[in-house]
Design brief:
The complex is a heterodimer of chains A (about 290) and B (about 800).
Chain A lengths: L6 E3 L4 H11 L3 E4 L5 H6 L7 E4 L9 E4 L2 E5 L4 H6 L1 H6 L1 H6 L6 H6 L2 H7 L6 H7 L3 E6 L3 E6 H4 E3 L2 E2 L6 E8 L4 E8 L9 E9 L5 E9 L6 E2 L1 H7 L6 H14 L10 H24 L1
Parallel strand pairs in A: 1-3, 2-3
Antiparallel strand pairs in A: 4-5, 5-10, 6-7, 6-10, 8-9, 11-12, 12-13, 13-14
Helix pairs in contact in A: 10-11, 11-12
Chain B lengths: L27 H5 L15 E7 L5 E7 L1 H5 L3 E6 H5 L5 E3 L5 E3 L5 E2 L5 E7 L2 H9 L2 E6 L6 H5 L17 E8 L1 H9 L3 E12 L8 E6 L6 E5 L4 H12 L6 E4 L15 H13 L3 E4 L2 H7 L2 E13 L5 E13 L26 E10 L5 E3 L7 H19 L3 H8 L8 E2 L5 E2 L4 H12 L1 H14 L2 E10 L11 E2 L2 E2 L2 E7 L5 E5 L8 H13 L6 E4 L17 H28 L6 E4 L2 E4 L2 E7 H10 L10 E6 L8 E10 L6 E11 L6 H20 L4 E2 L5 E2 L18 E4 L17 H18 L13 H10 L3
Parallel strand pairs in B: 1-14, 12-13, 15-18, 16-17, 25-26, 32-35
Antiparallel strand pairs in B: 1-7, 2-6, 2-8, 3-7, 4-5, 9-17, 10-15, 11-12, 11-14, 15-16, 19-20, 21-31, 22-23, 24-25, 24-30, 27-28, 28-29, 31-32, 33-34
Helix pairs in contact in B: 10-11, 10-18, 14-15, 15-16, 17-18
The chains are: A alpha+beta (about 290), B alpha+beta (about 800).
């Protein structure tokens, strides 16, 4: 690869990273897994002045339960999520999505936090996080720690509300008592971006009615799309085939895909409908299982 | 007549490792230990690095090129433009199809990615920085992005560099008999038609193309390391293009990381680097990026085909009519024999016996990358095989027949060989029904048809697709086949050293096919020298005999035959030497692989190794010393490998996705020299066929921007999505090849795409679907289902 020239620093401590971010701000890119950043630099689509490699930081690679949340720290790799017993026990949507992220090689280096912070509109994790009402935790030298709800974090494609001086340290999702989730993805081959991706999450009350619902879509809008209308159509109702079909219709109507080599807009919209139904059915089975 | 057998019992021991042994690939020791030597591994003292500046536009006039900022950059040694090359008469070069191609554009650019300038610097990073500083002022022109557009009467003329060129037609060519075909159609009960586009794909070898050109300003010696499938032919082309004396040109093709036809053409980068090295007096390296390889080097396919089959109500084919329009890109640069203009596409009559066929073809210039290389294919056989195999399946549907039964009613029968096809080929040998029966047996065809009936009743979609292909490979007989006048023979030189070890030098060049093992095994078979005692040398024009190179499944049919023949020459001489040693007459000696003995007294014998030693220490008086020779083999005919493939798919009607449940491939490539290597070749081809049918194409937007310029968009399947393959074999030797082999490198790429596509169509045939163009993407399947919904 032949990127433009750049400075490379690899600090040992988080404080040093935050110092560099505070001092150099906008010309800095943080390197965690590098699975999106490095290809962009290789093609000279991105040319950061300074690359801050955070891989030498310790204590930043956990996936665990903290304060009622399932927490994924900045250096936890996709493959750690795939293998995590905590994720398998705690969050079906994440467990379902993890094996669909890129390919095994990318998963061994790429990180969930990096994927969310990169906010490629075709990224899978952001949809899962929107469906599960995640929060992003960021730190800066002068501002300390900031907790940002995912919907407020994801601004537009490749744009987030993260400040140039801030480092994403973790992404976390609330625990749930009785629920289930799922991720459906259509890809042309392993490692491909989704043609269509649908994340679903359901929580049930003691009577078996839907108490909380999350639906979010990948690759069918200018950014990952949380379909609030479809979620609201579900909440308070007993799950049924008809109800799921109605939510799927709302999701299909809400998306705005473009026609490209992956398929026509009409096709993608119909796959959103098919996947939303399949995802909700699988989520319910997981919740009841 | 042919004989069919199912196993070739080796006549040599495993230690000798002749024909029929799974000798482990000798070359793999260095590859798996990281000791290969690829183009980019070559580093020479004072070597400079070159990067090409490429056009961002598909069609535009060049107003001016400003190189001053690039030249001012620290580390940049030179910036080369077409205007400078014109001073050496090098701004244009000939293509392998006799057209011309711009080396660096002077007048206008004709495709996105076209070479416009070259920046040469002391390191590759600086060269890239410099390339960004070359300012080219373009005046955009309307782009032609498909051949139909190019044929419109008011279309802009792409090749205004050609004198008096008033249209965008690159060639027109036909084969067969129009009159006889018209008669056949007049008497037909039914005419079955298909129109389909075989999309543009790319061979995409994992190693991209590159060169290290080292021209000595003192001696004029040009040593050119180059990713080449055909080093000798390239040497001659260099001599003709650059005007360098041919004895001063040495092409070295080092280890090559895949070719698949992509490394047959001569590319502008090779020429510019060589000219730059000549002028600068230092070695110049140029290695493409992945994107450069995909957007500018030899693409494949891009045939728009219409096929019509005339049939009787009883299911007999009477005739075939094919009209094809090819998208050639900006320069007509197919690597193909001179006498045919659409390669060997007229093999399109396939495995079936009927009296009449007529094939018309027309190539059209478009604003796309040039080429039309045969991607793992013998000169357009892939497109031909696909068309006829799609057509016979549709014919079966129209007649209400099973597609297997329809094929069997029309196969050329074993006693019809040598078979004269209606487009002029003479098929050497074949037994098509036996191969199809074996495939049907392996997959359980009847059971699957029963399951399909049940599945349809349940609303589940599954399909069974067949392809019974015949290839024509091994170009070829000198009377018919040449490239730029160079006859398509090939050669082998064999030297047996005093200690009985041997060195075999070939005019062909492996890109991963395993020549260093397979060709050693031929020597082992013929002389009894263990394959591991034979070193195979290839790819260096100063040290190998002349040959046309490796592509079109031609190495075994040509150089393999040459190896066999040169070995037999040495065996004849060895017999004379042995007679001298045994004090017998040569006629009284019997040959058992590896040794001669006196007839009737087996204890009186000498080994080939003893003979070799004597050839240098105790040769008969009056005989030339040594045990070496060379053979140039001019094949009497092409060879015709064939096979039957059957694919079973399950289809998701919600998303249009299809998954291969099973894939059975029965191949007949004649005698198999190394069965393990043959299986590997077939696996690779089946995977590439799957890629083309399922996911792979290079497409363009209306402005001529290439969609598919990297491996995110140009899809190469991994082990994850590649189906599992089940292989079977029949062996019908070639009657004219010295060891009965036919060539196999491309059979599976040629035969399998139709099998996959036929399976998907078969899953939807009951609702009336008859065609989905490749790649059979989920959205196309989904659309076909919608279009045929009640």
């Amino acid at each position: 690869m032949y990127p433009r020239a750049f400075d490379y620093v690899a600090p040992e401590t988080k404080q040093e990273v935050l110092d560099i971010l505070a001092e150099r701000g906008g010309e800095v890119k943080v390197l965690a897994g590098g699975q999106s950043l490095i290809p962009m630099m290789k093609l000279r689509f991105a040319s950061p002045g300074t690359l801050v490699d955070i891989n030498r930081l310790s204590g930043l690679d956990s996936i665990d339960i903290q304060n009622g949340h399932l927490r994924v720290q900045a250096l936890a790799r996709h493959s750690d999520v795939v293998r995590s017993d905590v994720v398998a026990a705690e969050n079906d949507a994440m467990a379902s999505a993890a094996p669909w992220i890129a390919d095994p090689l990318v998963r061994n280096l790429g990180t969930l936090c990096g994927s969310v912070a990169h906010h490629d509109p075709e990224g899978d994790w952001a949809s899962v996080m929107l469906a599960c009402d995640a929060e992003v935790v960021a730190e800066s030298r002068d501002g300390g720690e900031r907790v940002i709800p995912i919907a407020g974090f994801l601004v537009d494609m490749f744009t987030t509300s993260l400040q140039p001086t801030e480092l994403v340290t973790e992404v976390r999702v609330p625990r749930y008592r009785r629920g289930g989730g799922n991720y459906q993805k259509l890809e042309r081959k392993i490692g491909d971006y989704a043609t269509v991706g649908v994340a679903t999450h359901l929580e049930l009350d003691d009577a078996g009615s839907i108490s909380n619902a999350g639906i979010a879509l990948t690759s069918v809008y200018a950014h990952n799309l949380k379909v609030t209308d479809a979620e609201q159509a579900l909440v308070g109702n007993a799950p049924s085939v008809e109800l799921f079909a109605e939510a799927a219709r709302i999701a299909a109507a809400a998306c705005d895909p473009t026609s490209d080599v992956r398929g026509s807009a009409e096709y993608k919209r119909d796959v959103v409908r098919v996947f939303t139904e399949r995802g909700l059915t699988a989520s319910l089975a997981a919740a009841q299982g | 007549m042919t004989t069919t057998q199912h196993h070739h019992a080796p006549i040599t021991t495993p230690e000798v490792g002749g024909i029929g042994h799974n000798v482990r690939r000798i070359e793999d020791d260095r590859f798996i230990q990281g000791a290969g030597n690829y183009l980019d591994d070559i580093v020479l003292p004072r070597m400079l690095h070159m990067v090409l500046v490429r056009s961002p536009l598909a069609h535009a006039t060049i107003n001016s090129i400003d190189t001053s900022a690039a030249e001012a950059l620290d580390g940049v040694v030179a910036v080369v433009t077409g205007e400078m090359l014109a001073g050496y008469n090098l701004a244009w070069m000939p293509t392998l199809s006799g057209d011309t191609q711009a080396v660096l554009a002077t007048d206008k650019v004709r495709f996105q990615g076209q070479e416009v300038a070259a920046v040469i610097a002391t390191d590759p990073y600086v060269a890239r920085d410099g390339a960004e500083l070359v300012m080219v002022d373009y005046e955009p022109l309307d782009a032609i992005v498909n051949p139909m557009q190019g044929l419109e009467p008011d279309a802009p003329i792409i090749r205004d560099d050609l004198e008096d060129k008033a249209d965008n037609v690159a060639y027109e060519w036909e084969a067969g008999d129009a009159g006889a075909t018209a008669e056949a159609f007049a008497t037909a009960d039914r005419v079955v038609t298909i129109e389909t586009h075989y999309p543009r794909s790319h061979p995409s070898p994992l190693e991209t193309c590159g060169v290290v050109a080292d021209v000595s300003p003192v001696t004029g010696q040009a040593t050119i390391y180059m990713t080449s499938q055909a080093p000798h032919a390239h040497r001659t082309v260099f001599a003709l293009v650059a005007g360098l004396p041919e004895h001063n040109i040495r092409i070295i093709s080092p280890d090559v990381g895949g070719g698949f036809g992509n490394k047959v053409p001569v590319y502008p980068g090779y020429v510019v680097a060589t000219a730059a090295s000549l002028v600068l007096g230092a070695p110049v390296k140029w290695v493409e990026t992945r994107t450069e390889n995909l957007i500018s080097t030899g693409f494949a396919r891009d045939y728009y085909m219409k096929g019509e089959l005339a049939v009787t109500a009883e299911g007999k084919i009477l005739g075939l009519r094919v009209d094809m329009v090819s998208d050639q890109g900006a320069f007509y640069a197919d690597a193909q024999p001179t006498k045919t203009r659409a390669g060997l596409f007229h093999i399109v009559t396939g495995s079936y016996d009927y009296p009449a066929a007529h094939v018309t073809t027309k190539g059209v210039y478009t604003n796309k990358a040039p080429g039309g290389v045969a991607y793992r294919c013998s000169f357009r056989v892939t497109e031909a095989s696909f068309l006829i195999e799609r057509l016979v399946q549709n014919a079966a549907y129209e007649l209400g027949m099973d597609p297997a039964e329809f094929r069997k009613r029309n196969f050329i029968q074993p006693d019809q060989f040598p078979y004269h096809s209606p487009t002029g080929f003479v098929y050497d040998s074949g037994d098509y029904e036996t191969a199809l029966d074996m495939a049907m047996d392996m997959i359980g065809y009847e059971k699957l048809r029963a399951e399909q009936a049940r599945a349809r009743a349940e609303g589940r979609l599954m399909g069974i697709g067949i392809a019974s292909f015949t290839e024509v490979v091994g170009a070829g007989p000198s009377g018919e086949y040449d490239i730029l006048g160079l006859k398509m023979f090939d050669s082998a030189e064999l030297r047996v050293h005093p200690t009985g070890k041997a060195i075999l030098k070939l005019g062909v060049k492996t890109q991963g096919q395993g020549h260093e093992t397979t060709f050693a095994q031929i020597v082992a078979e013929e002389l009894g020298i263990p394959a591991t005692d034979v070193k195979v040398v290839h790819g260096d024009t100063d040290n190998t005999p002349y040959g046309l190179g490796t592509y079109a499944s031609r190495s075994t049919p040509t150089a393999g035959a040459a190896t066999s023949m040169v070995s037999r020459k040495l065996r004849s001489k060895a017999r004379e030497i042995a007679a001298h040693l045994l004090e017998a007459s040569p006629e009284d000696l019997e040959w058992e692989v590896g040794a001669f003995h006196v007839r009737g007294s087996p204890e009186s014998s000498v080994t080939i190794q003893e003979v070799a030693f004597a050839a240098y220490t105790n040769h008969p008086p009056g005989m030339e010393a040594g045990l070496e020779g060379v053979h140039y083999y001019d094949p009497p005919n092409m060879t015709y490998p064939f096979g039957s493939y059957i694919v079973v798919v399950d289809l998701d009607s919600g998303t249009g996705e299809w998954k291969v449940r099973r894939m059975v491939a029965v191949d007949d490539c004649g005698v198999r020299i190394n069965p393990m290597i043959v299986d590997g070749q077939i696996h690779g081809g089946l995977a590439e066929g799957f890629a083309m049918s399922n996911m792979q194409w290079i497409t363009f937007d209306e402005a001529g921007n290439c969609i598919g310029s990297n491996f995110m968009d140009y899809l190469v399947p991994t082990a994850w999505e590649t189906p599992r393959f089940e292989l079977g074999e029949t062996v019908t030797p070639s009657p004219h090849h010295p060891i009965g082999a036919k060539g196999v490198g491309e059979s599976a790429t040629v035969g399998s795409p139709a099998a996959y596509v036929n399976a998907v169509i078969d899953a939807l045939a009951h609702i009336g679907v008859r065609n989905i163009d490749m790649p059979v993407l989920p959205d196309r399947v989904w659309q076909a289902i919608r279009d045929h919904a009640e």
